[in-house]
Q: What sequence folds into this?
């Protein structure tokens, strides 16, 4: 078999006809069969013609021997004929055998191999050329039989054929032969077609099976990946809830112990505080992501000063960087009076502070630098953009995780090797915000060297210039250069009231207290020296919105800051509509409240 394959290979490489079908299917199989027949004809043809020549010399039938020799030469010729189409070869090969058959018929009669050769030609031609060619051979065979019948009356004793049959019996034989011939050709071509159809069906099924199994493999890998992510997510979530809870519960019970020193008390409270903030972050992020997903997150575009935002983010996160001994710095791309453009400031702050927070979190030594530049944009939607950057010298992000980290609950470190706090929501929220602001966010990074996050936002310069806009509010906690305001705290919850008092006691001249909406209205009416009201919204009698509305009826100057714990989209608009000047959401951060008071009271 090996030898045979080498033989076929050799032939195909050196003498392959130009038009051999290369496609799979019946035409290809037919061409392949013909080439095999041709190849095998060389040794077999040699034996056959040698036998024929010897027999013809012995029986003095020279013509048979001569044609045998000629037929063999023709096979050799066909074998070595290069650049000839396979169809021509098939025709020449078939005609050759027909001539042999006719000569044998005439000179050896029905006892010679002529009938077998004619029938074999029919079978072979049906196999290597097709049903139509097969039926033509049947017609040719029948024609030969009937010509023989027709010439029978001209009896010639020299020719063998004429000595074997009478006209009637030969006619009978011919009809039988023709019928049998038709049967054979039709059966073979039917069988071939059936085999071919089965073969093609199997081929299609195989292709289908292959594609389905590869899809199955992909689905399996995805399922495994999602399983891993799910387990990582659950483990992470549980960790992110339990750790701060542990801190809060553990240290609050320690606070109750009798021998706690002042020093320890401070330390425990600090831990409780940090744990609470961490838990709150998780809750805020989950609320944000659900708002984004349910399409409830609105975009509030207004004129803002970018330098105010960079210094705000810097001041808020400076303590975190200091605690890790990292150098935190920022670079503004525009002077304060030019740094104005239109965007949603809350979302911009959220994105920038998230990226800086991450940069600090994932950097153990070195520096974190952020800032922005005005650049021409390659986006088709806007020609100039503000390009923000946050660069760190931290752990870096592997290249195969640089896209995934922007998805929900995905962290670069699935196996939790680095084990830093976080739950994989910050970047997906950042990306959603940047998308909402019609921008783009991406990361460049090198593992072990650091990461650089970039985002661009469209820059619209059609806004008025704001003078001295950037204010460093928190550098010295609070500037007390101006007269302190009188502040009214409207709050029904005593813990919140105490908390607010502690926050503002150093910057207020006098603090008034009201426990209900009605009380707040009365106090404001009777004390026109009140400069600012911190108005809770949920109050026992009339709510904070209604109270603010009624206060506005008689006092347009007092500043009102609404404080709510709902954290809903639209809170701000509702507050502004009812006459408040601004809005702050609970839990109130000291820095945020001081910033607002300073802004509203111009101190
Ligand atoms: P997380 O709460 O886990 O920080 P994020 O969505 O903010 O969630 O970030 C997703 C993941 O991206 C992080 O878990 C971390 O693996 C990776 N990552 C984000 N920022 C950085 C950075 N500056 N350096 C290295 N890895 C980062």
A:
């Amino acid at each position: 078999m090996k030898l045979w394959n080498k033989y076929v290979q050799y032939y195909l490489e050196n003498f392959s006809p130009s038009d051999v079908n290369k496609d799979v299917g019946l035409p290809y199989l037919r061409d392949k069969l013909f080439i095999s027949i041709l190849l095998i004809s060389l040794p077999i043809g040699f034996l056959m013609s040698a036998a024929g020549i010897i027999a013809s010399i012995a029986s003095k039938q020279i013509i048979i021997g001569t044609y045998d020799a000629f037929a063999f030469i023709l096979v050799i010729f066909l074998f070595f004929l290069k650049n000839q189409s396979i169809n021509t070869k098939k025709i020449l090969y078939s005609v050759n055998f027909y001539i042999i058959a006719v000569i044998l018929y005439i000179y050896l009669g029905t006892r010679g191999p002529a009938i077998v050769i004619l029938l074999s030609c029919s079978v072979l031609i049906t196999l290597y050329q097709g049903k139509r060619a097969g039926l033509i051979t049947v017609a040719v065979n029948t024609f030969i039989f009937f010509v023989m019948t027709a010439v029978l009356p001209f009896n010639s004793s020299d020719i063998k054929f004429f000595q074997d049959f009478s006209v009637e019996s030969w006619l009978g034989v011919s009809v039988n032969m023709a019928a049998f011939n038709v049967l054979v050709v039709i059966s073979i071509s039917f069988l071939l077609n059936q085999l071919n159809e089965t073969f093609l069906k199997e081929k299609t099924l195989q292709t289908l099976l292959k594609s389905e199994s590869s899809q199955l493999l992909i689905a399996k890998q995805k399922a495994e990946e999602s399983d891993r992510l799910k387990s990582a997510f659950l483990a992470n979530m549980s960790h992110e809830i339990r750790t701060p809870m542990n801190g809060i519960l553990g240290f609050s019970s320690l606070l109750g112990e009798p021998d706690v020193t002042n020093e320890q008390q401070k330390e425990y409270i600090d831990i409780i505080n940090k744990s609470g903030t961490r838990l709150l972050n998780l809750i805020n992020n989950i609320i944000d992501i659900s708002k984004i997903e349910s399409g409830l997150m609105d975009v509030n575009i207004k004129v803002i000063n970018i330098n105010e935002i960079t210094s705000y983010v810097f001041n808020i996160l400076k303590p975190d960087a200091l605690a890790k001994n990292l150098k935190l710095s920022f670079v503004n791309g525009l002077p304060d009076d030019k740094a104005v453009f239109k965007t949603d400031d809350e979302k911009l702050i959220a994105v920038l502070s998230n990226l800086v927070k991450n940069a600090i979190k994932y950097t153990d030594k070195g520096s974190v630098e952020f800032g922005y530049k005005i650049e021409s944009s390659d986006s088709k939607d806007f020609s100039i953009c503000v390009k923000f950057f946050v660069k760190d010298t931290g752990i870096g992000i592997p290249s195969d995780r640089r896209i995934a980290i922007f998805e929900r609950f995905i962290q670069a470190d699935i196996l939790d090797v680095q084990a830093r706090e976080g739950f994989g929501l910050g970047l997906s929220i950042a990306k959603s915000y940047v998308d909402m602001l019609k921008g783009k966010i991406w990361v460049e990074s090198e593992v072990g060297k650091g990461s650089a996050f970039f985002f661009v936002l469209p820059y619209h310069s059609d806004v008025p210039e704001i003078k001295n806009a950037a204010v460093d509010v928190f550098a010295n906690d609070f500037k007390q250069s101006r007269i302190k305001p009188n502040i009214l705290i409207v709050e029904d919850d005593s813990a919140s009231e105490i908390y607010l008092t502690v926050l503002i006691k150093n910057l207020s001249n006098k603090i008034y207290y009201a426990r209900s909406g009605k009380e707040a209205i009365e106090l404001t009416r009777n004390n026109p020296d009140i400069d600012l009201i911190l108005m809770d919204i949920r109050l026992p009698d009339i709510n904070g919105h209604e109270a603010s509305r009624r206060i506005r009826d008689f006092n347009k100057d007092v500043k009102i800051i609404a404080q709510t714990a709902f954290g809903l989209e639209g809170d701000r608009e509702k507050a502004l509509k009812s006459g408040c000047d601004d809005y702050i959401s609970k839990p109130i951060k000291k820095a945020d409240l001081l910033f607002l008071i300073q802004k509203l009271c111009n101190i």
